[in-house]
Amino acid sequence: MNAMDPTEVFRQEANELFEVLEGALLDLGQRPDDRELVDSAFRALHTIKGSGAMFGFDKVASFTHEFETAFDRVRKGEIKPTQELISVALAAKDYIRALIEDPQSTDDIIGEAILDDLRRFVSSDQPAAPLEAIAEVPPPAPADSKQAGWHLYLEFESHILRNGSNPLDLLEDLCKLGPCFVVPVTDGIPFLDEMEPEDCYLKWDVKLHAACGKDAIDDVFMFVSDEMKLTLSPLEQVEAPAPMPLFQLLDEEPAPETEIPAPVLEAVAAPVAAQPVAKAESKSESKPEPKHEAKPEPKPEAKRDERGIATVRVQAERLDELMDRVGELVIAQARLSQLAASGSDLSIKIIAEEIERLASSLRDTTMGARMVPIGSLFGRFRRLVHDLSRDLSKPVEFVTSGEDTELDKTMIECLADPLVHLIRNAIDHGIEDTATRAANGKTEQGRIELAAVHSGAQVLVTVKDNGGGLNTARIRAKAEEQGLIAAGAVLSDHEIHQFLFHPGFSTAQTISALSGRGVGMDVVKRTIENMRGSIDLTTRPGQGTTVTLRLPLTLAIIEGLLIRVGEGRYIIPLSAVEECVELTAEDERSRGRNFLNVRGNLVPFLRLRQLLTASGSPDKHQKTIIISTGETRVGLVADQIIGNHQTVIKSLSKLHSDVTIFSGATILGDGTAALILDVAQLVTLAQSKVEKQHISEAA
Amino acid sequence: MSSDVTEPKWSLRLPADCSIAAIRSVYDLIREAFGRQDRLEIDCSSVDKADVTSIQLLLSTAKTGEAQGRPVVLTSFSQSLRNTLRRAGFASDAMIDQHFPQKKDGT
């Protein structure tokens, strides 16, 4: 076991916090009145500061402290976070990141300049907009008011203890603010059979007798505010003396009747109703204080992220190593299964089946451990859009959806650069300037949508803009000019748009810092195809362009359908298979039409023997595997369907990189190789052939 | 508690670590003991790591025993467990008595 360097752990954690901080700051730009966003940014800053000091990043701790201090007026609701302030705050965030990642590259003067800017913005006397959350909670108690303190009701999320949070520490911190009367509420404790011992069931009713502000209480629960419900109401001033501190209470004489809070009775009555209540019983007729339920919630229930429950940080390379081992195990298991099938020893067959089941389950578990929500990637682009929008003076609304869609972590890593290219292109070339948009009757603000959605065994990632759309005529003219097509050649729009993926192809009239050099789209396409994915463009003049990336869920192991075509064996990803039917004599006779009648629906089919130029004579009873790719259903005619096969994907050599219809190869149980069919490419190839045939017929 | 706590038949000594790190095994121990015995005495003298989960487990054990009419008695609370109880708001012996059925001579 090689333990991770604690500094590296801090860096990784800081990166996650930077994402949270950046997200909150960018959202604040859109929703400056959202108090929760300010709190979220502060929590991230506070953690960076604390952890930084702990791990010896003193400069980080000190700068972050100054950042916090300067930003405090925003937190207090005294000033509104303007776009300028957000920009400076983002620069401050970048500076902290640099201090952590590459301290040598930073300069104190830059840090001071950022802090000066920050201080200048926050010291301006701009009027503060009332924050939503503030309106929903009682105002902080002034020191001279009649308010005696706060009545709190604490209810934590069930998983809070698993996260390492300790409510008892929080209660202790709360008690530091002043005399505290803490009563545990035990009515949520379940019976043993219904209990999850690591869950939190206790709640607390607390009376804090201190003239502190709400902010001081919020500070105590700053790090768990997303994972708890805190109901807060002011305590009215009473003539009786304040209750005794927690540890003395009830050890002494009973307090006067009016002092006895209802929650004490709730607490003791719930679990031990049958037993006489010694000291509290005498107080049972006391007038209960208004219940916390009657008070309004202090703030809307925060978004809860359940993904972080009981997580363990594992180095990515260990996951890769595990996946490799599982791959080898699956291949060995296939060999064992084959051996067992060829023999007659029943006990070996039983063991082989058991190992097959275990290997399959281990494969699924391992792959599950590698899946990461794509939202972790999407978050990065918000800053990109923000900065491009500012630099190009094109107001752009950035909308994301499907952040919870999960993809193999390797895919996520590979996807970052292509998406940067696509988003840059969309803003630089797609979205028109405000004057043009206004002239075309569009809103001044452009819109970029980044979405992810599952589609069978694929994930579709789309980048959609509502700009001017592709100029097909200009692309064609440029292609002719570069000699890529002959003048006047007959091509479909789809084919013309494919030139955008040609190396060095650009229709931009000017080269900017962002795009226009013709470098990018070909790299995007190659990267996506290396991931066994595909890229597709659709455009509507004046309305915008949508780029769709189709990606497999994983790059490691798939469930496949093993088939035989001639003497060769091939794998079709099982996720693409809808059903298998026999090719009837009637279908056989339909040569030239190539359509199957599947329960009344006509489905086109491709003869794999022809496509793969198989030798030998075809089997008498050919089988058709109906597959779906995107919106298309196609039949693939093979000689034999051998059965399911856990397919460990091995990449093809560079020599075979041009053979697009195969996405890889695998090793079968007998040690021979089988090629994996890329069904999407296969269908595209066939469609392209048909399209060309139609065009030539029309010509 | 209305249960008869005078004649427990079987005693279970809680391990030193009853914190969240080990609470699952403590939970299993108690459930196993519950499955075998009509009456259960739980010796808390060795507990030196306790937290919210320990308190909850003891409360649940008491509640379950109460509901099933199977007496549960807790004995010899360690100082560490008492401290944790106090931090959680079970601030006095009286309050602890009310929630946790104890054999007085054993505490």
UniProtKB/TrEMBL annotation, chain B:
Coiled-coil intervals, chain numbering: none
SUPFAM superfamilies assigned: SpoIIaa-like
Span of domain STAS: 12-107
Pfam families, A to Z: STAS_2
Matching Gene3D superfamilies: STAS domain (3.30.750.24)
Protein name per the record: STAS domain-containing protein
